[in-house]
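pasting input
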Amino acid sequence: MRNSRDFGNRAESKCFPEHIQSPVFPGISPCVSGNLFRKKRFYSYTGGESTAKILRVDMNKLKATCEDVPDKWKNLGGRALTSSIVAEEVPADCHPLGPNNKLVFAPGIVTGTSAPSSGRISVGGKSPLTGGIKEANAGSSFAQKLAKLGIKAIIVQGQAKDKCYLLNIAKGKREFLDASPWMGRGLYEAYAQLMEKFGKDAAICSTGIAGEISGAAAGVAFNDIEGMPSRYAGRGGLGAVMATRGLKFIVVDDEGGPGVEIADKEIFKAGTKKLVAALHEHAITKPGGTLSSYGTDALINVINEAGALPHRNFSSGYDELAPLVSGEKKAETIKKRGGERPHVCSPGCIIQCSEVWVKEGGKDPVGVLEYESVWALGPNCGIYNLDDVGELNRACNDLGVDTIEMGDTIAVAMEGGVAKFGDGKRAIELMDEIRRKTPLGRILANGTEFTGKAFGVTRVPTVKGQGLPAYDPRPIKGIGVTYATTPMGADHTAGYAIAPEILGVGGKADPLDTKKADLSRGLQQATAFIDTSGYCLFTAFAIMDIPSGMEGMVESCNGVLGTNWSVQDAVNLGAKVLATERKFNKAAGFTKAHDRLAEFFKHEPLPPKNVVYDVPDAELDKVYPD
Amino acid sequence: MRNSRDFGNRAESKCFPEHIQSPVFPGISPCVSGNLFRKKRFYSYTGGESTAKILRVDMNKLKATCEDVPDKWKNLGGRALTSSIVAEEVPADCHPLGPNNKLVFAPGIVTGTSAPSSGRISVGGKSPLTGGIKEANAGSSFAQKLAKLGIKAIIVQGQAKDKCYLLNIAKGKREFLDASPWMGRGLYEAYAQLMEKFGKDAAICSTGIAGEISGAAAGVAFNDIEGMPSRYAGRGGLGAVMATRGLKFIVVDDEGGPGVEIADKEIFKAGTKKLVAALHEHAITKPGGTLSSYGTDALINVINEAGALPHRNFSSGYDELAPLVSGEKKAETIKKRGGERPHVCSPGCIIQCSEVWVKEGGKDPVGVLEYESVWALGPNCGIYNLDDVGELNRACNDLGVDTIEMGDTIAVAMEGGVAKFGDGKRAIELMDEIRRKTPLGRILANGTEFTGKAFGVTRVPTVKGQGLPAYDPRPIKGIGVTYATTPMGADHTAGYAIAPEILGVGGKADPLDTKKADLSRGLQQATAFIDTSGYCLFTAFAIMDIPSGMEGMVESCNGVLGTNWSVQDAVNLGAKVLATERKFNKAAGFTKAHDRLAEFFKHEPLPPKNVVYDVPDAELDKVYPD
C-alpha cells in the first residue's frame, strides 16, 4: 500500500519552513521566488509576430472564416485565451444553451511545438452546469494539430437550425458535413468510423449523446492516440454547449499546416531543456516514477490512508476495500491482460501517466482510468470492482459525460434510492438510461445537483452546481478552499492544494490548518498560467519543487511568443485570467455566497477523522477580497 | 367579450394625471396620499397587549410548545411576521430541504376577527424553487381558526427521522399522529377522511404527493369551506419544506379558543365599516360586481384582448380560442351544471370571487378555477377545454402542486417534445407521473426551470427560478418590473401593476411605457402591508380607488393592535418587510443579476403586438437601488 511519502518520494528541502511555501510560485512562496526572479526579465523582446489566426465558426450561416488575432490576445493561449474571448463576446446573463453562448477552443502557447507534455486543448464558454464561465482542458493530438494548422482559437457561435454538423478542418479547407448518421450513437463506434473516413491520423473533437439531450454533465471528447474518445475537457457541461450550437464533431487534419511559429528558437530550446530535466528528475514525473508506473490512480491508497477518499457519497474518508481499485492493482491487472501502461495521451508527452485499460482477454479497450474517474465511479458509489469501474468509465466516454460529475451523480442517485451503494451492475444500467434518453437518463445527464433535487437528496457535494472531485475537503482544508473559491465550481485542478497538504510537493502544509487562503490563491494563479501555457498540469509537480523547471517553462513560452516574461509575470498573467473569469461570474450573478462548500460539509463530521469543514467564511473570502 | 373597461368599470377620477398615480398608496401617488394623510396619526395608542402565542413545533423531538411573542413581533402578522421569523431564524445559506430550514405559518393582523375578506394564512420559509426567502398565502378557515386559538405563528423546525406526522392542534392539545396511512394518496380523499375523523368543522393544512418527493413546485394546501384541498399557498415549493420536516398535515380545531384580542373595538368597528363600504362600492369587488359574477377568470378575455395572455409557452399574446375558457364561459357552465358561484373561500368574505367547479352532472367538485390556474393549465398549454383544465386543476390540488408552476412546467415540457400543445388528455396523464413518482413525475414536480433543463428547452419563462404568471411582460412593462424585482421570484401578486396598466384601477399607466420602477415599488410596498394585515389582496381594487377604504383597512389593524399607524406608516411597514426579505436574499447570494426576466423576453417579439421586453436594466435596478 502506498502512502503520501511514497507518492511524493522526494527529499525534504531543508530551507523551507513547515508552513505553506513553495520554491517556485510567488503566490505560494514569495520569499524564495522573490530571491530567484526578483523582477528580473530573462529575455529581451525579439519582435516575433504570430501569423496564427482565429477561426470563427458561424453555425447560423454554416460559415467558418479566419480572422487576425487582435493584439490584446496575441500573447495568450489556452485558458487565458478562451476565458478572455468568452468574457468579451458572451453576455454573462445569456442562457448557456441559448443562441448567445459561444464555445471557444484554444491550444496552449507552446502546444504544437516540441515542448514536452504540452498537447493541451482548452475549451471555454458559459457553463450550463454552474451558470458561470467555464474552462476545461484535455490532452489530445487535436490540440497539436490545431496549433500546427496555424489556428490559435476556434470560436463557435450561433445555432444550426435544422441538424447537427461535422466541421472538417484541414489546410485551406473548412467544410460542414451532415452529422445526422451519428446522432444517438456511441462515440467509440463513431470515432472508429470517422478514423476510417478521415484517416487514422485525423484528430477528432465531439459531443455525445449526453450533449444531444443538453445534459449539463456533458463533456467535450477528444481522441487519444489510439483514436478512441477517452480524452475529455469534461467539466461544466461544455458538451451541451457544443451540441446546442448544432455542432457534433470537429475533425482536424494538419497536413501541410504552417506549424507553430517560434519567435526565438534558442530561448525556446533552452527553456524546454530545463523543463525536461526537471520532469526527468522529480520522483512523481520521471520515467519509472509514480505517474508512469501507476498513473494518477496511485492516489487511491494515498488519499484513503489520509482519511480523505470519499466513499459512498462523501459518507466516509476511509474504506479498507479501496486498495482493490488502486493504481497499483490496476497497473498489475493491465499488465496481466495485455493492455498498455505507461502510455501517452498525446504525442510528445514524457510523463506518460496514461494507459489503455482493457477487459479480461484484452477486449474492449477503454483508454485511461484516471484517479478521479476510478474514485468517482468506484469508492464514491461503494464500488470496488475495477471491471465495473472500467465499464462505467467506458460508458461515460461513449456517451460523452464527465466521469467526476457522473460518479457524484450516481452516488447521489444511490443515496436517493435509485440503486444500492456498491451495485456496479445497476450503475452500468443507469448509464444506459442516458443512452436511451429516458427521463431518468435526462436527470442523470444533468449532473449531481440536478439529480439531488430530482430525488430529494440534500447531501449533495457541489460548489456552484459542480460536483466535488476525489478529495473530501473536511480533512484537507486547502483543497476545500480551492473548491469553494475557484470561478470554475468545485475543481481540484484549479489549485491543487493536495500537493503541499498531502504529497509534500511545493512545500508542506498541515492539511488540518484552516489558514489556506494564501496557499489556494497562489496555486490558482500558477494553475491559470499553466493552463494558458499549454503544458500539462502534471508538470506542476516538478516545477513546484525544482525552480529551474519553472524557469524553463516560462522561457519556453517566451521563446514561442518573443516575450520576456519573468516567473512573476507568468503568475501575474494567471491572476489576470482569474480576475477576468471572476468579473464574468459577478456579472452572471455570483457573490461570495457562492464561494462556499455545500452545507453538509460544515455540519457532518467525516469518519474516520470525524472532522467537519471548519474553514471560516472570512478565510474563504480572503482568497479574492475584491 | 369583456375588455379592460368592463373589468374596471369605474368612473375615471378627473383629478389624476394620466401617468402612474393612485389616490391612496403613497408609493404610487405621493401627492394625493400626502394630502390625505400628511403624517397624521389617526388614533392614540390604547395599550392593548396581545396574549397570542407562538407555537414552536420541533419535529426532531415531536414537541410543540408555546412561546411568548417577542415585543418586536407583537404588532406583526401575516407576511411581515413569517418573513421576519424566517430572516431571523433560518440561515440564508442553508439547503431549503435540509435540517436548518423552517416553515412558518402566521394569520394576518385582523384574521380571525369580523373584518371582511381577511381569512388569510401566510406561509414562509427558504424556497427550494428560488433559493431565496418565500412567502405564499392563502384564504382558508385554517387561518381564522389558528388566530382564534390564540396562535400568532407556528414555527416548524427540525426533521422527523422515521416517518411523516399529523399535528393535531386544539385548545390545550398538541398531538402528533402517524400520517403514514395517507402517504402516496391524493389530498381530496385524505381531506374527506380527516374531516370524518376530526369533524366537518376542522381546518386542515397539508402537503401532497409532490411534497413527498421533494418537488420544488409543491404547495401548501388548505381546506376550502367544503373541506376540499383547493386553497393553496402554492408558490415556491413550501410544500416540500413541510414534507421534509416530516410533517404531512396540521389539523386545527378552535373550539373554546380565546379569539383574537381587539385593543380598541370602536376603532376596529369604524375601520371595518369604511372598508366594507369601499368593497361594496367598487365595481370589481361589489356584490354582483366582476369578481362575484365571474371570478378572477374574468381576466382571460381582458388580457387576451390586450395581447398579453401567454399562449403555448409564451409564444403569442392573443388567441381567438381564449373565450372558450373565460370567466364568462365558466360561470355559465357552472350554473348549467349545478356547481356554485359566487362562493366564499373562507367565512366572512364579502367579495366572493370563489366558486365550485364541477364536471358534467355536478360530479367531482374541484373548488375554484382561478384565472391564473385556467390560463396556466389552459391557453399556456394550448388547451381551450374547460373540462380538461378542471381536471388538471383537480390533479394539482390532489397532488399538492402549484397550478401556475405546473402550467408553466407542462408548457415547457410540451415545447421539449414530451407532449403536443393542446393535448389536454396527455397533460392529464403527465400529472399521473407525479402521482406514481416516476422519474418524469419527479422532473415535472420540480417545476418550470427544472423541466426546461431536463428537456433542453431554453425558452423558460422564469425569474429566480419561479414560473411566470398569466401576464406576458412584453406588452405590459410594469408587471414585468414586479416579476423581475420582487424578492419572491416571478409573482404577479407581489405588485399588481396590471391594475393601473390594464384595468384602470389605482390610476392609469400606459402599459408600454418602460418607466415603471416607481409604480412597481409602490405596489410592492402596499402589497407587503396588505399581506401582513390578513386582508385578501383583492381588497386592493377598492382601496386603491377609494381612499376611505384604505383608511378603514389601516384603522381596523390599529383597532386590533392598539397602534396608531397612518397609511404612510402602513406602507412603510411594507417597505420594511421587503427590506428584510431582500437582505435574506442577498445573504443567500442574490444580486441585481437575478432581478431580470428570462433572456428570451428581451430578444423574442411577442405577437400580435410584436414587442420585446425593453425595460432597461437601469430602470429595474431603480426599484431597489440599495
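fyi The CA atoms of residues 94 and 557 of chain A lie 34 Å apart.
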